[in-house]
Amino acid sequence: MDVLIAGAVLVIILPLFITVAVLLALDGSGNGVFYRARRVGRGGREINVLKFRKMRDEAGPAITAGEDPRFTRIGKVLAATKLDELPQLLNVLGGHMSLVGPRPEDPRFVAMHQQAFATILTVRPGITGASQLAYAREAEILDGGDPVSDYVERVLPRKLEIDAHYVAVKSVVGDIRLLCWTAVAMILRRDVAVHRDTLQCSLRSRQPAMAPRTQASTGRVVAGIGARDMSPSLLLPPGSSTGGHGSSTVVAAHSAEPGRPREPVAIQPMSQVHYGTVAVVSAAPTVIER
């Protein structure tokens, strides 16, 4: 089934595929059209995951932050639109990947969590999946100063939980649902929230206007909270909302009761309600007006 769908999709998008390849060939970077990323596939075997090359020099951190200086002009567009992932359809045709499955990880990260990956690697990795949808904007919320450490300590453990849960409840119907949500996210250009217990998906609300970030000690506004402005340190606590099933933009507590004056609500480190709600604030004491 995966091979048939991947083959059909490749035929449909062939003009786009060729156009991107030609633009990369004319880009002048001299590094070729494709990049082969070493990843770990089913059974722990290493595979080369194909991507359109989006950087001038692939040497550097294994994790890409949002403003990585290695991006080419075309590479930034490919990364933002996820078009760099299209060559992975060839991996599906080769039998190394599935359309839906856990995200293939770098061997160095797999070595850090061998017990968790022992379960996850019983299935083929996928181009899309629950963790891919939940962390579609992963590069934007990583600490630009040390993206690798931030990824290993904060993001990767949560992605492993999602992928392990996916493997436990994997079904054809579930895979079709994730494919449909992937199509929705790409066509509507909207982010998708993934529930941690059920893997049910829903559209996140659109990014609202920037909300002020205030110091608890003085009440002084120090910055706005936006997708590119937040330092990843705290997660959305249960009992809070983002206007939807999660957001990587502005955190807001529940509204005050009618007639009750607005008051600051401290955000403390607690487990998130929905994966992908990496709506985080700085390590300094922070409050949100409600």
Quick tags:
290 residues; four-stranded antiparallel beta sheet; 35% helix; three-stranded antiparallel beta sheet; alpha+beta; 2 domains
List the helices and strands and how they pair.
Elements (H helix, E strand, L loop, with lengths): L1 H24 L8 E7 L5 E7 L20 H9 L6 H6 L4 E3 L6 H6 L1 H7 L5 E3 L1 H5 L3 H4 L5 H23 L2 H17 L3 E4 L5 E3 L7 E5 L5 E5 L14 E2 L10 E2 L10 E3 L7 E2 L10 E4 L1
Parallel strand pairs: 3-4
Antiparallel strand pairs: 1-2, 5-6, 5-12, 7-8, 7-13, 9-10, 11-13
Helix pairs in contact: 5-8
Please sum up the structure shown.
The protein has 290 residues and is of the alpha+beta class.
Task: Explain how this protein is built.
By secondary structure, the protein is of the alpha+beta class. The chain has 2 domains: 2-203, no CATH class; 206-290, no CATH class. 35% of the residues lie in helices and 17% in strands. The protein is built from 9 helices and 13 strands. The strands form 5 sheets. It has a 4-stranded antiparallel beta sheet, with no helix packed on it. A hairpin with a 5-residue loop joins β7 and β8 (221-225). α5 packs across α8 (147-169). The longest helix is centred in the first third of the chain and has 24 residues, at 2-25. It starts with a helix and ends with a strand. 35% of the residues are buried.
